[in-house]
Amino acid sequence: xxxxxxxxxxxxxxxxxxxxxYLEHASKKVALKFLQDFNKAVADILKVRYFRVFYLNFRGRxxxxxxxxxxxxxxxxxxxxxIKAVFHTAQTPQKYPHT
Length: 99
Description:
Helix content is 38%, strand content 29%. By secondary structure, the chain is of the alpha+beta class. Strand 2 and strand 3 (58-62) form a beta hairpin. Helix 1 (9-25) packs antiparallel against helix 2 (28-48).
């Protein structure tokens, strides 16, 4: 059985905020490239699942072209990948997700 993806409301908001930032401060093209990079990283997580552990059971996958990390947890029992945060790497590590 393949794993499914669940994006938490907090992570969805962070992704939307990042997209809105690129729309406002760069261009529609840059915002679309951000979304493409995000979607590629999610696809990689679906394929590999076991990227680096950053904190307790939080794993992270860096986006390729943008300064963001997707933080996620695995629910092996439900075969689910739960995206908890879309974190800008310029933020302090103390802001990493903890729940």
